Amino acid sequence: MAELLRDRETAPGARAFDGPAGPLARAREGLRAYGLITAMWIRSTMAYRTSFVLTALANLAATGLDFVAILLMFSQVDRLGGYGLGEIAFLYGAVSTAFGLADLTMGSMERLGRRVRDGTLDTLLVRPVPVLAQVAADRFALRRLGRVTQGLLVLAYALGSTDIDWTPLKVLMIPLMLISGTGIFASVFVLGAAFQFVAQDASEVQNSFTYGGNTLLQYPPTVFAQELVRGVTYVVPIAFVNWLPGLYVLGRPYPLDLPAWVAFTPPAVAFACLALAGLAWRAGLRSYRSTGS
Amino acid sequence: MTSDFITLDGVEKVFDVRRRTGFLRRERHQVRAVDGITFQVPRGEMVGYIGPNGAGKSTTIKMLTGILTPSGGRLRVAGIDPARERTRLARHIGVVFGQRTTLWWDLPLIDSYRLMRRMYRIPDARYAENLDRCVELLDLAALLEVPVRQLSLGQRMRGDIAAALLHDPEVLYLDEPTIGLDVVSKAKVRGFLRDLNAGSGTTVLLTTHDLTDIEQLCRRVMVIDHGRLMYDGPLDGLHEVGQSERMLVVDLERELPPLEVESARVVRTEGPRQWLAFPAAASAAPLVAAVAERYPLVDLSVREPDIEAVIAKMYADRGTS
C-alpha cells in the first residue's frame, strides 16, 4: 500500500523502460510478486508433505478446541450476555474467518522485526518489487487455512441453527462483513510491522490487537464493560469486524446506542485503516532506510 | 551524465545513536559511518573495497544499492539516484551478500532461478542464455535439481552469484563473496568473477577481508577507515603509501651478531639466519652486494611485503596521527 504512494518520488517519464508507473500498476506488481513468492513457500512446504498435513490438522484441531470451550460453557448456561449459542456461534464464526484470512495472507508480517535485526530485510530491498508484498508473503503458511476452515464451519453451523429474519441487505452483509473484517485485521498486521521498524520487539503489542481482538470479538459486546466496548469501537476499530455488522444481521441492539447505519460502515472503516497502515508502513520503511536499524 | 558508471561526491551517512544513560534519560550522539567519500568507477572496472569492520564498507554498499538513504552528498549509479529510485535501480544491479543467501532453502536450486526470471521479467531467450553461461562457468549443472539446504557453502555461494546475474545487471556488488569458503571454492569464485568482468564487461565492486581476492582480481583498490577514503589507486601503490618494507633473509656460515649495513636494519636473528628489512621501493642488488662483500654468505632470499601488513600499518598510522 505504501509502495503505491512511492511513485510520487519519481521524476516523470523516468520509468520508461523500467517497469510500470502509477499506483494501480504498483498494486498489480505487488500482488504479482506476492503470488510468486507465496507459490514458492507453498512448494517449500510441500517438500515436507507429511509435516504439512500434520501441522494443518493440528492447527484445525487447536482452533476447533477453541470453539469446544464455548460449547462446554453453553452446557452449563443457556445464554451468555443475553445471547444464545447460535448467535454466539455467528459472531465467533465471522470473526474467526476474518481473522483467519488476514492471518493467512498477512500474518507473516510479524516476522519483520527479526528480519530487521538479522539484516535479511536488506536482501528484499534490492529486488525490483514492493517490499510490503515481499514481507507479507514471507514464510507464507498454508496451514493457517485451518483457522479459516474452522471459522467457516462455525459460521455455517450458526447460519443453519439461528433464526434470522433474512433480507437482501442482510445477505449482502455476510460477505461484506468478512471482507471488511479481513481488511481491518490486515491493517493491524501492517501497522504492527511498521512499528517494528522502530521498535523491533513490538510484535507482542500487535499480537494483543490481532489475537487478543480475535478472542474478544468471539463474545457479544454485552459481556464486556462499557469502557472496553467504547475502546474497540472508537480507538482500535475492531468492533467493526463483526459486532456492528453482525448484530445488524441478528437484529440485535447495538452497543453504545449507535445508529443503525453504522452496520454499513465496515468497508469504509477497513479502507481507512488500510490507508493509515499503508502510510505508517511507508514512514517505517523510510525510517529504516535512513537509520539502517 | 559523465562516462563514469558509479559516481560518489562527498557522500555522507550519519547515524543518530541513542544510548540509555539512566531511567528515561537518553544521550544522543552522532556517528559518522561514512564521512565525505568521493570516487568514480568507470563502466567495466573491477574494484576492491576494503577496510576493517565498522569502517563504513557495508554502509557505502547499502547506499549504492538504495537500501540506505545518504545524509549528504551526491550519489549516482547508472545515472540513477539509488535512494529515490530503488526499485528502478534494482533491475540494473546484482547484489551478493556473502553471509545471507537469497536462495530458497528447501527447493531445488533451479526453482530460485525460475523465481528470478519471473520477478525480474527476464525474456526467455536471455534467461536461457544467461543460465547456460552461469551453469557452465560456475559448474552448477549437477546442482540444479538439488535442494539448496543440501549444498555446501561453496556451492551455495556459486549458486547465489548466478542468481544475481540472470537479469544481466550492469554492476555486481559482492559483499564478502569468499567468506568461509575452502581454497578450491575460492579459486572457482575468483576465476568466474575474472571471466565475467573480462567477458561481459560487468562492473564489479567487491568488499572483502581476504586480500588474496583483491590481489587476484582487482587492479584498483580503495581502502576505507573511519568512514573516509584513505587510499584509492592501483594495488602496487599501496606499498608506497604504506611505506612498506621488503625483507632480505640471509643464511650465514655461522652465528654472528646482527649485521651492520646501511639502508637496512636487522629485525630478527635465529642462529645463522638473519632478517634484514629495507624499503620496498629500493633495489635489493646493492644491499646483497654489500652483505656478500663483508660477511660469509651461504644463501639468501627476498620476501615481498604482504599487503595485509601494509594495510595494518596504514590503520595503525592513522590511529596514532
Automatic annotation (TrEMBL), chain A:
Top-level taxon of origin: Bacteria
Keyword tags: Membrane, Transmembrane, Transmembrane helix
Transmembrane domains' residue ranges: 52-74, 80-102, 176-199, 258-281
InterPro entries: ABC-2_transporter-like (IPR010390)
Key word Cell division present: no
Record protein name field: Transporter
Organism whose genome encodes this protein: Streptomyces longispororuber
Automatic annotation (TrEMBL), chain B:
Matching Pfam families: ABC_tran
Gene Ontology BP, a term: response to antibiotic
Domain (ABC transporter) ranges: 12-251
Topological relation to the membrane, as annotated: Peripheral membrane protein
A GO-annotated cellular component: plasma membrane
The entry's keywords: Antibiotic resistance, ATP-binding, Nucleotide-binding, Transport
UniProt GO molecular function: ATP binding; ATP hydrolysis activity
Superkingdom of origin: Bacteria
Main location: membrane
Localization (cell): Cell membrane
PROSITE patterns: ABC_TRANSPORTER_2 (PS50893)
Alphabetized SMART domains for the sequence: AAA
Name under which the protein is recorded: ABC transporter ATP-binding protein
